[in-house]
Specification:
It is built from five helices and no strands. By secondary structure, it is mostly helical.
Amino acid sequence: MSILLAAAAATLFGIGTYLVLQRKLSRIIIGLGLLSHGANTLLMTSGHGGIEPLIGVEGADMADPLPFALALTTIVITFGVSALLLAMAFRSWVLTRDDEVENDVSDQRVARGVIRSREIVDEAAAEQEAERADELAAATAGEVE
């Protein structure tokens, strides 16, 4: 039975990793959920070696309570991260009507070593101002016609 649960955890880890590497934020959220389920399955498999630990019961074949506590911690952390990612996905949908994670040009330039961080901030601010001016001009032109 533990081999079957270990295989299930490995499958959940594999599918979750594949989904986390995708470009859609909804797939990333589902992948994170699968990764957490895989971690919980692995923790429960590793900790279930005997009977449940109860107060006042002595015995050598009791299960270790630490993996169960770690599984509860995993659930709480996953809930918080999922809530944050869902809020980000909602905000992305409101702004762009799409949940695709786009490449950041500034990050690519930093990775190549082309510009320094101070130049990135100045350039990003200039790009944002130019985009706002273009949007304002387009909105004004639309109202005039």
